[in-house]
Design a protein that fits this description.
Layout: E1 2-7, H1 12-22, E2 27-33, E3 52-55, H2 62-71, E4 76-79, H3 86-91, H4 93-114, E5 119-125, H5 149-168, E6 172-177, E7 179-181, H6 190-199, E8 204-207, E9 213-218, H7 219-232, E10 238-241, E11 246-248, H8 249-260, E12 266-269, H9 284-288, H10 297-310, E13 323-327, H11 332-343, E14 347-350, H12 358-368, E15 372-375, E16 382-384, E17 387-389, H13 401-421, E18 425-431, H14 462-474, E19 480-485, H15 498-503, E20 507-508, H16 518-530, E21 535-538, H17 547-557, E22 565-566, H18 569-573, H19 588-593, H20 600-609
Parallel strand pairs: 1-2, 1-4, 2-3, 4-5, 5-6, 6-10, 7-9, 8-12, 13-14, 13-15, 15-18, 18-19, 19-21, 20-22
Antiparallel strand pairs: 9-11, 16-17
Helix pairs in contact: 1-7, 2-4, 4-5, 6-8, 6-10, 11-16, 12-13, 13-14, 17-20
Protein backbone atom coordinates (compact mmCIF):
# COMPACT_ATOMS: atom_id res chain seq x y z
CA UNK A 1 0.00 0.00 0.00
CA UNK A 2 1.28 3.43 -0.90
CA UNK A 3 1.85 6.42 1.33
CA UNK A 4 0.97 9.26 -1.00
CA UNK A 5 1.92 12.93 -1.00
CA UNK A 6 -0.41 15.09 -3.07
CA UNK A 7 0.47 18.70 -3.81
CA UNK A 8 -2.42 21.11 -4.43
CA UNK A 9 -4.94 18.82 -2.74
CA UNK A 10 -7.19 21.73 -1.82
CA UNK A 11 -7.56 22.79 -5.44
CA UNK A 12 -10.23 21.70 -7.88
CA UNK A 13 -8.74 18.54 -9.43
CA UNK A 14 -6.46 17.93 -6.46
CA UNK A 15 -9.28 17.81 -3.90
CA UNK A 16 -11.27 15.40 -6.07
CA UNK A 17 -8.15 13.24 -6.34
CA UNK A 18 -7.69 13.32 -2.56
CA UNK A 19 -11.24 12.04 -2.18
CA UNK A 20 -10.59 9.22 -4.66
CA UNK A 21 -7.39 8.18 -2.86
CA UNK A 22 -8.98 8.25 0.59
CA UNK A 23 -11.63 5.88 -0.74
CA UNK A 24 -9.03 3.54 -2.26
CA UNK A 25 -7.92 0.36 -0.49
CA UNK A 26 -4.48 0.69 -2.09
CA UNK A 27 -3.60 3.98 -0.34
CA UNK A 28 -2.57 3.76 3.31
CA UNK A 29 -2.00 7.47 3.95
CA UNK A 30 -2.40 10.82 2.18
CA UNK A 31 -0.33 13.91 2.96
CA UNK A 32 -1.80 16.98 1.28
CA UNK A 33 0.61 19.88 0.72
CA UNK A 34 -1.40 22.98 -0.18
CA UNK A 35 -0.54 26.45 1.04
CA UNK A 36 -4.20 27.63 0.71
CA UNK A 37 -5.13 30.55 -1.55
CA UNK A 38 -8.37 32.30 -2.46
CA UNK A 39 -9.53 29.57 -4.82
CA UNK A 40 -8.64 26.66 -2.52
CA UNK A 41 -11.70 24.81 -1.26
CA UNK A 42 -12.18 23.94 2.37
CA UNK A 43 -13.21 20.30 2.44
CA UNK A 44 -9.68 18.93 2.92
CA UNK A 45 -8.19 22.01 4.59
CA UNK A 46 -6.88 20.63 7.92
CA UNK A 47 -9.73 18.11 7.89
CA UNK A 48 -9.92 15.59 10.75
CA UNK A 49 -9.78 12.39 8.71
CA UNK A 50 -8.04 9.12 9.53
CA UNK A 51 -4.89 8.45 7.53
CA UNK A 52 -4.85 12.01 6.20
CA UNK A 53 -2.93 15.18 7.04
CA UNK A 54 -2.91 18.63 5.48
CA UNK A 55 0.27 20.72 5.45
CA UNK A 56 -0.25 24.39 4.60
CA UNK A 57 3.22 24.68 3.12
CA UNK A 58 4.42 26.61 0.07
CA UNK A 59 6.10 24.39 -2.51
CA UNK A 60 9.12 26.68 -2.55
CA UNK A 61 9.84 25.70 1.07
CA UNK A 62 12.15 22.82 0.15
CA UNK A 63 13.21 22.10 3.74
CA UNK A 64 9.60 21.66 4.83
CA UNK A 65 8.86 19.38 1.86
CA UNK A 66 11.84 17.18 2.73
CA UNK A 67 10.71 16.97 6.36
CA UNK A 68 7.19 15.91 5.29
CA UNK A 69 8.57 13.24 2.95
CA UNK A 70 10.76 11.88 5.74
CA UNK A 71 8.27 12.15 8.61
CA UNK A 72 5.39 10.57 6.68
CA UNK A 73 7.56 7.91 4.96
CA UNK A 74 6.13 8.86 1.57
CA UNK A 75 6.38 6.31 -1.25
CA UNK A 76 4.49 8.06 -4.12
CA UNK A 77 3.94 11.69 -5.08
CA UNK A 78 1.22 13.24 -7.28
CA UNK A 79 2.01 16.87 -8.16
CA UNK A 80 -1.12 18.97 -8.89
CA UNK A 81 -0.18 22.30 -7.29
CA UNK A 82 -0.01 25.13 -9.81
CA UNK A 83 -1.31 28.54 -10.65
CA UNK A 84 -3.61 27.87 -13.60
CA UNK A 85 -5.60 30.96 -14.63
CA UNK A 86 -4.51 31.91 -18.14
CA UNK A 87 -5.90 35.48 -17.96
CA UNK A 88 -3.96 36.23 -14.77
CA UNK A 89 -0.78 34.79 -16.27
CA UNK A 90 -0.73 37.60 -18.84
CA UNK A 91 -0.78 40.15 -16.01
CA UNK A 92 1.88 38.60 -13.78
CA UNK A 93 4.00 35.97 -15.59
CA UNK A 94 6.61 36.06 -12.83
CA UNK A 95 4.16 34.70 -10.25
CA UNK A 96 3.50 31.72 -12.54
CA UNK A 97 7.22 31.05 -12.87
CA UNK A 98 7.59 31.20 -9.07
CA UNK A 99 4.75 28.72 -8.56
CA UNK A 100 4.89 26.37 -11.54
CA UNK A 101 8.61 26.32 -12.29
CA UNK A 102 10.44 27.20 -9.08
CA UNK A 103 7.86 25.37 -6.94
CA UNK A 104 8.25 22.24 -9.06
CA UNK A 105 12.04 22.51 -8.85
CA UNK A 106 11.81 22.72 -5.05
CA UNK A 107 9.66 19.58 -4.93
CA UNK A 108 11.98 17.72 -7.31
CA UNK A 109 15.02 18.69 -5.24
CA UNK A 110 13.34 17.55 -2.01
CA UNK A 111 12.44 14.19 -3.59
CA UNK A 112 15.97 13.75 -4.91
CA UNK A 113 17.38 14.44 -1.45
CA UNK A 114 14.83 12.07 0.13
CA UNK A 115 15.61 9.30 -2.33
CA UNK A 116 12.71 6.96 -1.49
CA UNK A 117 9.94 8.00 -3.90
CA UNK A 118 8.98 5.02 -6.07
CA UNK A 119 6.54 6.83 -8.41
CA UNK A 120 6.26 10.55 -9.15
CA UNK A 121 3.30 11.70 -11.24
CA UNK A 122 3.51 15.20 -12.68
CA UNK A 123 0.16 16.71 -13.67
CA UNK A 124 0.75 18.86 -16.74
CA UNK A 125 -1.72 20.36 -19.21
CA UNK A 126 -2.86 19.95 -22.82
CA UNK A 127 -2.09 23.64 -23.32
CA UNK A 128 1.65 23.02 -23.61
CA UNK A 129 1.01 21.55 -27.08
CA UNK A 130 -0.41 24.82 -28.39
CA UNK A 131 -3.12 24.99 -31.07
CA UNK A 132 -4.45 22.07 -33.12
CA UNK A 133 -3.68 24.14 -36.21
CA UNK A 134 -3.03 21.15 -38.45
CA UNK A 135 -6.31 19.48 -37.51
CA UNK A 136 -4.61 16.46 -35.92
CA UNK A 137 -4.91 15.27 -32.32
CA UNK A 138 -1.83 15.86 -30.21
CA UNK A 139 0.09 12.67 -29.41
CA UNK A 140 2.18 12.32 -26.21
CA UNK A 141 5.32 12.67 -28.33
CA UNK A 142 4.05 15.68 -30.30
CA UNK A 143 6.24 18.81 -30.10
CA UNK A 144 5.24 21.27 -27.40
CA UNK A 145 4.55 24.87 -28.33
CA UNK A 146 3.12 26.79 -25.33
CA UNK A 147 1.62 30.13 -26.33
CA UNK A 148 0.75 31.87 -23.06
CA UNK A 149 2.65 32.44 -19.80
CA UNK A 150 0.62 29.81 -17.94
CA UNK A 151 1.30 27.01 -20.42
CA UNK A 152 4.93 28.12 -20.73
CA UNK A 153 5.38 27.85 -16.96
CA UNK A 154 3.77 24.38 -16.97
CA UNK A 155 6.09 23.35 -19.81
CA UNK A 156 9.04 24.67 -17.77
CA UNK A 157 8.04 22.63 -14.73
CA UNK A 158 7.53 19.55 -16.86
CA UNK A 159 10.92 20.03 -18.53
CA UNK A 160 12.58 20.13 -15.11
CA UNK A 161 10.79 16.93 -14.09
CA UNK A 162 12.01 15.18 -17.26
CA UNK A 163 15.53 16.48 -16.61
CA UNK A 164 15.49 15.05 -13.06
CA UNK A 165 14.25 11.76 -14.50
CA UNK A 166 17.10 11.62 -17.02
CA UNK A 167 19.81 12.96 -14.70
CA UNK A 168 18.90 11.42 -11.34
CA UNK A 169 16.65 8.50 -12.22
CA UNK A 170 13.47 10.06 -10.80
CA UNK A 171 10.62 7.55 -11.46
CA UNK A 172 8.56 10.00 -13.51
CA UNK A 173 5.07 9.76 -15.00
CA UNK A 174 3.44 12.70 -16.82
CA UNK A 175 -0.23 13.32 -17.62
CA UNK A 176 -1.56 16.09 -19.86
CA UNK A 177 -5.28 16.61 -19.45
CA UNK A 178 -8.03 18.45 -21.30
CA UNK A 179 -10.19 21.09 -19.56
CA UNK A 180 -11.75 19.65 -16.41
CA UNK A 181 -15.19 20.59 -15.12
CA UNK A 182 -17.37 19.38 -12.26
CA UNK A 183 -17.89 19.72 -8.51
CA UNK A 184 -15.65 22.02 -6.47
CA UNK A 185 -14.36 23.99 -9.48
CA UNK A 186 -13.83 27.61 -8.55
CA UNK A 187 -16.09 29.71 -10.82
CA UNK A 188 -13.30 31.67 -12.48
CA UNK A 189 -12.98 29.11 -15.29
CA UNK A 190 -15.35 29.10 -18.24
CA UNK A 191 -17.71 26.30 -17.17
CA UNK A 192 -18.25 27.46 -13.59
CA UNK A 193 -18.39 31.10 -14.63
CA UNK A 194 -21.08 30.51 -17.23
CA UNK A 195 -23.18 28.41 -14.84
CA UNK A 196 -22.96 30.95 -12.01
CA UNK A 197 -23.80 33.81 -14.37
CA UNK A 198 -26.85 31.91 -15.63
CA UNK A 199 -28.03 31.00 -12.13
CA UNK A 200 -27.81 34.67 -11.13
CA UNK A 201 -29.38 35.91 -14.41
CA UNK A 202 -26.24 37.90 -15.14
CA UNK A 203 -24.74 38.43 -18.63
CA UNK A 204 -22.72 35.48 -19.94
CA UNK A 205 -19.31 36.97 -20.72
CA UNK A 206 -17.44 35.44 -23.66
CA UNK A 207 -13.92 36.30 -24.79
CA UNK A 208 -14.02 37.53 -28.37
CA UNK A 209 -16.37 35.74 -30.76
CA UNK A 210 -16.43 32.50 -28.76
CA UNK A 211 -15.39 30.52 -31.86
CA UNK A 212 -12.44 28.85 -30.11
CA UNK A 213 -12.98 25.22 -29.11
CA UNK A 214 -12.22 23.41 -25.88
CA UNK A 215 -12.29 19.70 -25.08
CA UNK A 216 -13.90 18.92 -21.72
CA UNK A 217 -13.58 15.97 -19.35
CA UNK A 218 -15.45 15.51 -16.08
CA UNK A 219 -13.17 15.76 -13.05
CA UNK A 220 -14.15 12.31 -11.75
CA UNK A 221 -13.09 10.74 -15.06
CA UNK A 222 -9.84 12.72 -15.01
CA UNK A 223 -9.02 11.68 -11.43
CA UNK A 224 -9.62 8.02 -12.24
CA UNK A 225 -7.32 8.42 -15.24
CA UNK A 226 -4.58 9.98 -13.09
CA UNK A 227 -4.94 7.21 -10.51
CA UNK A 228 -4.74 4.60 -13.29
CA UNK A 229 -1.50 6.12 -14.59
CA UNK A 230 -0.07 6.39 -11.06
CA UNK A 231 -0.73 2.70 -10.42
CA UNK A 232 -0.28 1.16 -13.87
CA UNK A 233 1.65 3.63 -16.00
CA UNK A 234 5.09 2.87 -17.38
CA UNK A 235 7.83 4.93 -15.77
CA UNK A 236 9.17 7.58 -18.14
CA UNK A 237 6.00 7.77 -20.22
CA UNK A 238 3.58 10.63 -20.99
CA UNK A 239 -0.17 9.98 -21.05
CA UNK A 240 -2.82 12.26 -22.52
CA UNK A 241 -6.13 12.46 -20.66
CA UNK A 242 -8.75 13.53 -23.15
CA UNK A 243 -12.26 13.20 -24.42
CA UNK A 244 -14.16 13.67 -27.64
CA UNK A 245 -16.37 16.29 -25.95
CA UNK A 246 -15.05 19.27 -27.92
CA UNK A 247 -17.29 22.30 -28.28
CA UNK A 248 -17.08 25.95 -29.31
CA UNK A 249 -17.28 28.29 -26.33
CA UNK A 250 -20.21 30.16 -27.88
CA UNK A 251 -22.05 26.86 -28.33
CA UNK A 252 -21.29 25.89 -24.73
CA UNK A 253 -22.91 29.13 -23.56
CA UNK A 254 -26.05 28.44 -25.60
CA UNK A 255 -26.17 24.81 -24.40
CA UNK A 256 -25.92 25.80 -20.72
CA UNK A 257 -28.52 28.53 -21.19
CA UNK A 258 -30.89 25.99 -22.70
CA UNK A 259 -30.35 23.64 -19.74
CA UNK A 260 -30.61 26.29 -17.00
CA UNK A 261 -33.01 28.80 -18.48
CA UNK A 262 -33.26 32.32 -17.08
CA UNK A 263 -32.90 35.77 -18.59
CA UNK A 264 -29.13 35.98 -19.12
CA UNK A 265 -27.91 37.50 -22.37
CA UNK A 266 -24.61 36.73 -24.05
CA UNK A 267 -22.07 39.54 -23.80
CA UNK A 268 -18.90 39.47 -25.90
CA UNK A 269 -15.92 41.02 -24.11
CA UNK A 270 -12.37 41.76 -25.17
CA UNK A 271 -10.54 38.62 -26.24
CA UNK A 272 -7.46 37.29 -24.49
CA UNK A 273 -4.07 38.54 -25.60
CA UNK A 274 -3.63 35.04 -27.06
CA UNK A 275 -6.55 32.62 -27.19
CA UNK A 276 -5.58 29.19 -28.54
CA UNK A 277 -8.00 27.62 -31.01
CA UNK A 278 -8.20 24.19 -29.38
CA UNK A 279 -6.32 21.32 -27.72
CA UNK A 280 -7.57 17.94 -28.93
CA UNK A 281 -5.37 15.09 -27.68
CA UNK A 282 -5.00 11.41 -28.45
CA UNK A 283 -5.61 9.35 -25.27
CA UNK A 284 -5.05 5.88 -26.76
CA UNK A 285 -2.08 5.14 -24.46
CA UNK A 286 -4.35 5.78 -21.47
CA UNK A 287 -7.06 3.53 -22.89
CA UNK A 288 -4.47 0.76 -23.21
CA UNK A 289 -4.08 0.87 -19.40
CA UNK A 290 -7.76 -0.06 -19.02
CA UNK A 291 -9.24 3.37 -18.31
CA UNK A 292 -12.56 4.33 -19.87
CA UNK A 293 -14.60 7.51 -19.72
CA UNK A 294 -17.72 7.02 -17.58
CA UNK A 295 -19.44 10.42 -17.41
CA UNK A 296 -21.18 11.60 -20.60
CA UNK A 297 -21.02 15.30 -21.43
CA UNK A 298 -24.78 15.71 -20.92
CA UNK A 299 -24.74 13.97 -17.53
CA UNK A 300 -21.60 15.82 -16.47
CA UNK A 301 -23.08 19.20 -17.32
CA UNK A 302 -26.27 18.44 -15.40
CA UNK A 303 -24.34 17.19 -12.37
CA UNK A 304 -22.21 20.34 -12.42
CA UNK A 305 -25.25 22.61 -12.74
CA UNK A 306 -26.93 20.82 -9.82
CA UNK A 307 -23.79 21.15 -7.71
CA UNK A 308 -23.53 24.90 -8.29
CA UNK A 309 -27.24 25.28 -7.52
CA UNK A 310 -26.70 23.59 -4.16
CA UNK A 311 -23.54 25.59 -3.42
CA UNK A 312 -24.51 29.09 -4.58
CA UNK A 313 -23.20 30.57 -1.33
CA UNK A 314 -19.69 29.35 -2.33
CA UNK A 315 -18.92 28.60 1.33
CA UNK A 316 -16.59 25.78 0.33
CA UNK A 317 -14.14 28.47 -0.78
CA UNK A 318 -14.64 30.89 2.12
CA UNK A 319 -14.82 28.68 5.24
CA UNK A 320 -11.17 27.69 5.21
CA UNK A 321 -9.43 26.34 8.29
CA UNK A 322 -5.93 27.82 8.37
CA UNK A 323 -2.96 27.32 10.67
CA UNK A 324 -1.69 30.42 12.45
CA UNK A 325 1.41 30.87 14.56
CA UNK A 326 0.92 34.04 16.62
CA UNK A 327 3.56 36.07 18.42
CA UNK A 328 2.34 38.59 20.99
CA UNK A 329 -0.94 36.70 21.38
CA UNK A 330 -1.24 37.48 25.08
CA UNK A 331 -1.28 41.25 24.71
CA UNK A 332 -4.38 43.40 24.49
CA UNK A 333 -4.82 43.31 20.72
CA UNK A 334 -3.20 39.89 20.58
CA UNK A 335 -5.94 38.37 22.70
CA UNK A 336 -8.59 39.89 20.42
CA UNK A 337 -6.96 38.35 17.34
CA UNK A 338 -6.48 34.99 19.06
CA UNK A 339 -10.11 34.89 20.22
CA UNK A 340 -11.33 35.75 16.72
CA UNK A 341 -9.20 33.00 15.17
CA UNK A 342 -10.49 30.48 17.71
CA UNK A 343 -14.10 31.52 17.14
CA UNK A 344 -13.72 30.87 13.41
CA UNK A 345 -12.22 27.42 13.86
CA UNK A 346 -8.65 28.04 12.74
CA UNK A 347 -5.74 26.00 14.05
CA UNK A 348 -3.87 28.25 16.44
CA UNK A 349 -0.49 28.15 18.13
CA UNK A 350 0.32 31.07 20.43
CA UNK A 351 4.08 31.19 20.79
CA UNK A 352 5.76 31.36 24.19
CA UNK A 353 9.13 32.21 22.65
CA UNK A 354 10.94 35.50 22.93
CA UNK A 355 11.35 37.03 19.47
CA UNK A 356 14.97 38.00 20.08
CA UNK A 357 15.87 34.29 20.37
CA UNK A 358 16.48 33.84 16.64
CA UNK A 359 17.45 30.15 16.63
CA UNK A 360 14.46 29.16 18.78
CA UNK A 361 12.06 31.13 16.59
CA UNK A 362 13.38 29.53 13.39
CA UNK A 363 13.11 26.07 14.93
CA UNK A 364 9.58 26.73 16.14
CA UNK A 365 8.38 27.86 12.71
CA UNK A 366 10.02 24.84 11.07
CA UNK A 367 8.38 22.49 13.58
CA UNK A 368 4.91 24.08 13.48
CA UNK A 369 4.77 24.57 9.67
CA UNK A 370 2.08 27.28 9.87
CA UNK A 371 0.28 28.66 6.84
CA UNK A 372 0.50 32.13 8.40
CA UNK A 373 2.59 33.94 11.01
CA UNK A 374 1.23 37.02 12.77
CA UNK A 375 3.33 39.31 14.95
CA UNK A 376 1.37 41.44 17.40
CA UNK A 377 4.39 41.89 19.65
CA UNK A 378 6.17 45.15 20.36
CA UNK A 379 7.45 47.38 23.11
CA UNK A 380 5.49 50.42 24.29
CA UNK A 381 5.50 50.17 28.09
CA UNK A 382 7.25 48.60 31.07
CA UNK A 383 8.54 48.99 34.61
CA UNK A 384 11.11 51.52 35.78
CA UNK A 385 12.25 51.30 39.42
CA UNK A 386 9.22 49.20 40.27
CA UNK A 387 6.75 51.65 38.73
CA UNK A 388 4.73 50.67 35.64
CA UNK A 389 4.73 53.23 32.83
CA UNK A 390 1.81 52.47 30.49
CA UNK A 391 2.76 54.83 27.65
CA UNK A 392 5.57 55.17 25.14
CA UNK A 393 7.25 57.53 27.61
CA UNK A 394 8.71 54.30 28.99
CA UNK A 395 11.00 54.18 25.96
CA UNK A 396 12.30 57.69 26.73
CA UNK A 397 13.80 56.50 30.01
CA UNK A 398 17.59 56.03 30.20
CA UNK A 399 18.82 52.66 28.98
CA UNK A 400 15.64 51.73 27.03
CA UNK A 401 17.04 52.16 23.53
CA UNK A 402 18.19 48.55 23.45
CA UNK A 403 14.71 47.24 24.28
CA UNK A 404 13.18 49.61 21.75
CA UNK A 405 15.42 48.55 18.87
CA UNK A 406 15.30 44.87 19.86
CA UNK A 407 11.51 44.59 20.15
CA UNK A 408 10.30 47.21 17.66
CA UNK A 409 12.89 46.83 14.89
CA UNK A 410 15.06 43.72 15.04
CA UNK A 411 12.33 41.25 16.08
CA UNK A 412 9.70 42.06 13.42
CA UNK A 413 12.22 42.50 10.58
CA UNK A 414 13.98 39.25 11.46
CA UNK A 415 10.64 37.44 11.64
CA UNK A 416 9.61 38.87 8.26
CA UNK A 417 12.88 37.76 6.62
CA UNK A 418 12.56 34.30 8.16
CA UNK A 419 9.00 33.91 6.87
CA UNK A 420 10.10 35.07 3.42
CA UNK A 421 12.85 32.46 3.45
CA UNK A 422 10.30 29.74 4.31
CA UNK A 423 7.60 31.12 1.96
CA UNK A 424 5.17 31.71 4.83
CA UNK A 425 2.79 34.68 4.76
CA UNK A 426 3.72 37.17 7.49
CA UNK A 427 1.46 39.81 9.03
CA UNK A 428 2.89 42.58 11.18
CA UNK A 429 0.84 44.91 13.33
CA UNK A 430 2.66 48.17 12.74
CA UNK A 431 1.75 51.75 13.47
CA UNK A 432 0.76 54.94 11.71
CA UNK A 433 2.35 56.97 14.49
CA UNK A 434 5.32 57.71 12.24
CA UNK A 435 3.87 60.91 10.76
CA UNK A 436 3.20 64.42 11.98
CA UNK A 437 1.03 67.11 10.44
CA UNK A 438 3.10 69.49 8.30
CA UNK A 439 2.53 72.26 5.75
CA UNK A 440 1.29 69.80 3.11
CA UNK A 441 -0.58 67.47 5.46
CA UNK A 442 -2.46 69.77 7.82
CA UNK A 443 -5.21 68.99 10.39
CA UNK A 444 -7.88 70.72 8.27
CA UNK A 445 -10.36 68.41 6.51
CA UNK A 446 -9.45 69.79 3.11
CA UNK A 447 -5.81 68.82 3.53
CA UNK A 448 -4.52 65.49 2.14
CA UNK A 449 -3.39 62.73 4.45
CA UNK A 450 -0.34 60.51 4.46
CA UNK A 451 -0.43 57.57 2.04
CA UNK A 452 1.19 54.15 2.29
CA UNK A 453 4.09 55.34 0.14
CA UNK A 454 4.94 58.51 2.06
CA UNK A 455 8.20 58.22 4.04
CA UNK A 456 7.97 58.71 7.83
CA UNK A 457 8.45 62.31 8.89
CA UNK A 458 8.10 62.12 12.69
CA UNK A 459 11.00 61.33 14.97
CA UNK A 460 9.86 63.22 18.06
CA UNK A 461 9.63 60.09 20.23
CA UNK A 462 11.98 57.14 20.52
CA UNK A 463 9.07 54.81 19.76
CA UNK A 464 8.06 56.53 16.53
CA UNK A 465 11.66 57.01 15.43
CA UNK A 466 12.41 53.28 15.59
CA UNK A 467 9.01 52.24 14.22
CA UNK A 468 9.61 54.48 11.23
CA UNK A 469 12.65 52.42 10.26
CA UNK A 470 10.71 49.19 10.75
CA UNK A 471 7.90 50.44 8.53
CA UNK A 472 10.36 51.46 5.82
CA UNK A 473 12.08 48.06 5.86
CA UNK A 474 8.80 46.12 5.69
CA UNK A 475 7.10 48.35 3.14
CA UNK A 476 6.11 46.38 0.01
CA UNK A 477 8.08 43.27 0.94
CA UNK A 478 6.81 40.19 -0.89
CA UNK A 479 4.68 37.99 1.37
CA UNK A 480 4.62 40.63 4.14
CA UNK A 481 1.43 42.42 5.21
CA UNK A 482 2.27 45.58 7.16
CA UNK A 483 -0.84 46.84 9.01
CA UNK A 484 -0.60 50.43 10.24
CA UNK A 485 -3.03 51.15 13.06
CA UNK A 486 -3.45 54.32 15.15
CA UNK A 487 -4.91 55.15 18.55
CA UNK A 488 -6.78 51.81 18.80
CA UNK A 489 -10.33 51.91 20.15
CA UNK A 490 -12.46 49.10 21.59
CA UNK A 491 -15.87 48.92 23.27
CA UNK A 492 -14.40 47.61 26.54
CA UNK A 493 -12.29 49.46 29.08
CA UNK A 494 -8.60 48.61 28.98
CA UNK A 495 -5.49 50.63 29.85
CA UNK A 496 -4.41 50.42 26.18
CA UNK A 497 -7.82 51.48 24.82
CA UNK A 498 -7.66 55.07 23.56
CA UNK A 499 -11.10 55.78 25.03
CA UNK A 500 -10.00 54.50 28.45
CA UNK A 501 -6.88 56.62 28.25
CA UNK A 502 -8.49 59.96 27.41
CA UNK A 503 -11.40 59.47 29.85
CA UNK A 504 -8.88 58.98 32.65
CA UNK A 505 -7.28 62.38 32.08
CA UNK A 506 -8.57 65.57 33.64
CA UNK A 507 -7.32 67.59 30.69
CA UNK A 508 -6.77 66.65 27.09
CA UNK A 509 -5.31 68.28 24.00
CA UNK A 510 -7.89 67.86 21.24
CA UNK A 511 -6.44 67.33 17.76
CA UNK A 512 -8.10 65.63 14.76
CA UNK A 513 -6.51 62.24 14.08
CA UNK A 514 -6.91 58.98 12.25
CA UNK A 515 -7.94 56.13 14.54
CA UNK A 516 -8.51 52.38 14.36
CA UNK A 517 -11.73 50.91 15.76
CA UNK A 518 -10.59 47.37 16.54
CA UNK A 519 -13.91 45.44 16.44
CA UNK A 520 -14.14 46.49 12.80
CA UNK A 521 -10.53 45.79 11.86
CA UNK A 522 -9.72 42.48 13.57
CA UNK A 523 -11.87 40.58 11.00
CA UNK A 524 -10.27 42.58 8.17
CA UNK A 525 -6.74 41.76 9.35
CA UNK A 526 -7.56 38.04 9.51
CA UNK A 527 -9.24 38.17 6.09
CA UNK A 528 -6.19 39.85 4.59
CA UNK A 529 -4.01 37.13 6.12
CA UNK A 530 -6.22 34.39 4.71
CA UNK A 531 -6.10 35.98 1.26
CA UNK A 532 -2.32 36.29 1.48
CA UNK A 533 -2.44 40.00 0.75
CA UNK A 534 0.89 41.74 1.10
CA UNK A 535 2.07 45.34 1.16
CA UNK A 536 1.49 48.21 3.56
CA UNK A 537 -2.04 49.33 4.46
CA UNK A 538 -3.30 52.24 6.54
CA UNK A 539 -5.80 50.32 8.69
CA UNK A 540 -7.70 53.26 10.11
CA UNK A 541 -11.33 54.19 9.72
CA UNK A 542 -11.87 56.75 6.94
CA UNK A 543 -11.88 60.34 8.11
CA UNK A 544 -10.42 62.08 11.14
CA UNK A 545 -11.88 62.64 14.59
CA UNK A 546 -10.80 64.84 17.49
CA UNK A 547 -10.44 63.95 21.16
CA UNK A 548 -13.28 66.30 22.00
CA UNK A 549 -15.61 64.63 19.50
CA UNK A 550 -14.90 61.24 21.06
CA UNK A 551 -15.53 62.56 24.56
CA UNK A 552 -18.80 64.16 23.45
CA UNK A 553 -19.91 60.75 22.17
CA UNK A 554 -18.77 59.16 25.44
CA UNK A 555 -20.78 61.66 27.44
CA UNK A 556 -23.84 61.16 25.24
CA UNK A 557 -23.89 57.35 25.21
CA UNK A 558 -21.85 56.16 28.22
CA UNK A 559 -21.60 58.67 31.07
CA UNK A 560 -23.79 61.80 30.98
CA UNK A 561 -21.96 63.19 34.06
CA UNK A 562 -18.54 63.05 32.43
CA UNK A 563 -16.64 66.34 32.30
CA UNK A 564 -13.25 67.33 30.93
CA UNK A 565 -11.06 70.31 30.17
CA UNK A 566 -8.79 71.18 27.28
CA UNK A 567 -5.23 72.40 27.42
CA UNK A 568 -2.74 73.47 24.78
CA UNK A 569 -0.04 71.44 23.13
CA UNK A 570 2.53 73.47 25.06
CA UNK A 571 0.83 72.65 28.36
CA UNK A 572 0.63 68.98 27.44
CA UNK A 573 4.36 68.78 26.70
CA UNK A 574 5.10 69.82 30.26
CA UNK A 575 3.82 66.43 31.49
CA UNK A 576 5.13 64.24 28.63
CA UNK A 577 8.68 63.08 28.08
CA UNK A 578 8.33 63.12 24.28
CA UNK A 579 6.02 64.67 21.66
CA UNK A 580 3.18 62.62 20.22
CA UNK A 581 2.35 61.82 16.62
CA UNK A 582 -0.77 63.53 15.27
CA UNK A 583 -1.78 62.85 11.68
CA UNK A 584 -4.39 61.80 9.17
CA UNK A 585 -3.82 58.64 7.10
CA UNK A 586 -5.38 58.23 3.67
CA UNK A 587 -7.48 55.06 3.35
CA UNK A 588 -8.19 54.92 -0.38
CA UNK A 589 -6.15 51.72 -0.79
CA UNK A 590 -8.05 50.06 2.06
CA UNK A 591 -11.47 51.21 0.85
CA UNK A 592 -10.93 49.81 -2.64
CA UNK A 593 -10.56 46.40 -1.02
CA UNK A 594 -13.08 46.85 1.81
CA UNK A 595 -15.61 49.51 0.74
CA UNK A 596 -17.90 48.58 3.63
CA UNK A 597 -15.53 50.04 6.27
CA UNK A 598 -17.40 52.70 8.23
CA UNK A 599 -16.13 56.23 8.76
CA UNK A 600 -14.42 56.89 12.06
CA UNK A 601 -17.40 58.88 13.36
CA UNK A 602 -19.86 56.11 12.48
CA UNK A 603 -17.68 53.45 14.01
CA UNK A 604 -16.89 55.31 17.23
CA UNK A 605 -20.59 56.06 17.79
CA UNK A 606 -21.29 52.33 17.51
CA UNK A 607 -18.54 51.62 20.04
CA UNK A 608 -20.01 54.08 22.51
CA UNK A 609 -23.51 52.63 22.16
CA UNK A 610 -22.13 49.25 23.21
CA UNK A 611 -19.46 50.41 25.63
CA UNK A 612 -18.76 47.89 28.43
CA UNK A 613 -22.14 46.20 27.87
CA UNK A 614 -20.57 42.73 27.70
CA UNK A 615 -18.60 43.15 30.93
Amino acid sequence: MSRLLITGGCGFIGSNFVQLCLESEDVAFVANVDKIVDISNSRYCHADIANYKHYAVDLNNQAALLKILQDEKITDVAHFAAMSHVDDSFKDPGAYVDSNVKGTLSLLSAMQQYGKVTRFLHVSTDEIYGDNREGRDHMPDSPTHPQNPYSASKAGGEALARAFSESFGLPLLIVRANNNYGQYQYPDKVMGRFICQLLENEPITIHGSGAVKRSFIHVSDCCRAIYTVLKKGEIGQIYNIGSADEIKIIDLAHKLKEMIGGTSEIKHVKDRVKNDLGYRVDASKLLDLGWTKQVSFEDGLQQTIDWFRENKDLKCWTNKRLKFLVYGGKGWIGEMVVNYLKKHGHILIVSEKRLENSAEIEQEISDVMPSHVISLAGRTSGYVDGKYIATIDYLEKPGKWRENVRDNLFAPVHLALLCQKLYIHFTYLGTGCIYLYDEVHAPEKSSPGFTETDPPNFDGSAYSYVKGFTDTLLNDQKGVLNCRIRMPIDNKDHPRNFVTKITSYKKICSIPNSMTVLPEFIPIIVDMCARRIDGTFNLTNPGRISHNEILEMYKCHVNPQFEWENFTDEEMMKILLAPRSNNFLETEKLQKMYPEVRTVHQSVVEVMKNYNKSQ
